[in-house]
Amino acid sequence: MAIKVIFVGPMGAGKTTAIAAISDIPPVATEARNHDKTMHVKATTTVAMDYGELSLDDGNKLSLYGIPGQRQFSFIWPIVSKGALGGILLLDCSMSDWAEQFKFYIDSFRSLANSGAMVVGLNRVEEDDKETVSGVIQDCCENLELALPYFFMDPRDPQDVNLLLEALVINAELDHILQGE
Amino acid sequence: MILPAATIEKIKEILNYSTDIRDEIESLLLCTSDGHEIACASYRGLKIEEAKVSAMAASFAGLSLTIADCCNKQDALGGIVETKDGLIICGLIKTPEVDLVLLGVFAKGVQHGLALWNFRNQLNKFRSLLKS
Question: How far apart are CA B122 and CA B132, in angstroms?
């Protein structure tokens, strides 16, 4: 049986791109024309879900699901995330409200975050800003009483996306072991 | 604003007129393909959560297109939900300027053929309006 992983985060964070970067199959997307250019300037947006697959060396298969990032589609988030091993939260840190988005998505997927089954990918961070962004993430995690792994990444780069997946799987396995003790 | 105010007024007129004169139509909702409500009309005191249903209609339409594509069927026109209480039909309206989704909720007992015929008439009205 395939292991399900979800990609979450706001519109334009790179969820569709990240899935496309690592999927073994042509990714399935549900893109529609973006009419709300105040939210993001991109031409299309996901309206239901993205789907991709990744085969692992041990023979297991990961099913990669992406949620639609716009909040009006929050009704579908529990449907898409049902049965997921964990989630990858992607954020576009060039957006002024990225820290607010971080808190919002942690809150929306709190059960995954609480169980250590969430990893954060920070996209579009300039070299000079990395320290500041790290500080903000660490403060947010402290306030939320969470310890989440975070990585600076580019969703177009398969190596970066694979690193997030590896961190997620290791974290989930650790949590599983700790719960068994 | 996605459409000019005058066009939205005209859309509302069509929706209200259609739900008034066609007993089999319970609700008609028009939204953008990315889930933003444009206008909605219902009759007999029926109430649907317009913002929520707009997002759901957009998701449903998006999935309909993707499912059709994955099954080697091109240019999906929309999708149908069959319930014991009647049909829900959703259809796409594509124009150079804007992509819209029309959702029609039909009363219990209405035959599929009649509902589809009626729904397509509504779609054509909006296509003509947006073309003009």
Answer: 16
Q: Does B53 touch chain A (CB under 8 A)?
A: no
Q: What is the pLDDT of residue B1?
A: 61
Kindly determine whether residue B56 and residue A36, on different chains, have CB atoms separated by under 8 Å: no
Determine contact: B71 vs chain A, CB below 8 A. Answer: no
Sorted by sequence, the CB contacts under 8 Å of residue A103 that are 6+ apart come out as A140, A144
Instruction: Give residue A39's pLDDT.
Output: 80
Is the pLDDT at B129 greater than 70, yes or no?
yes
Residues of B in contact with A27 (CB under 8 A): none
Mean pLDDT, chain B, whole residue set: 91
Q: Say yes or no to pLDDT of B45 above 90.
A: no
List, in order, residues 6 or more apart from B94 with CB less than 8 Å away: B100
Q: Which stretches of chain A score pLDDT less than 50?
A: none
Instruction: Identify residues of A whose CB sits under 8 angstroms from chain B CBs.
Output: 28-36, 45-49, 68, 70, 72-73, 75-76
Q: CA of B54: which chain A residue's CA is closest? A: A72
Encode pLDDT of A112-157 as tens digits: 998 889 999 999 999 999 999 999 999 999 999 999 999 999 999 9
Q: How is residue A123 annotated by DSSP?
A: E
Chain A residues lying within 8 Å of B63, measured CB to CB: 30, 48-49
Within 21-40 of B, beta carbons closer than 8 Å to A belong to: 32-36
What integer pLDDT is reported at residue B39 of this predicted model?
93
The CATH-assigned architecture of domain B5-131 is: 2-Layer Sandwich (3.30)
Indicate the domain borders of chain B: 5-131
Q: Are A118 and A89 in contact (CB under 8 A)?
A: yes
What is the pLDDT at residue B22?
82
Q: Which domain holds residue A141?
A: 3-180
Of A133, A140, A135, nearest to A118 (Cα)?
A140
Which residue, among A16, A25, A47, would best test binding to B if mutated, counting the most B CBs under 10 Å from its CB?
A: A47
β A50-55/A44-46 pair status? unpaired
CATH number at residue A10: 3.40.50.300
Instruction: Please name the member of A32, A46, A75 whose beta carbon is closest to the beta carbon of B56.
Output: A75
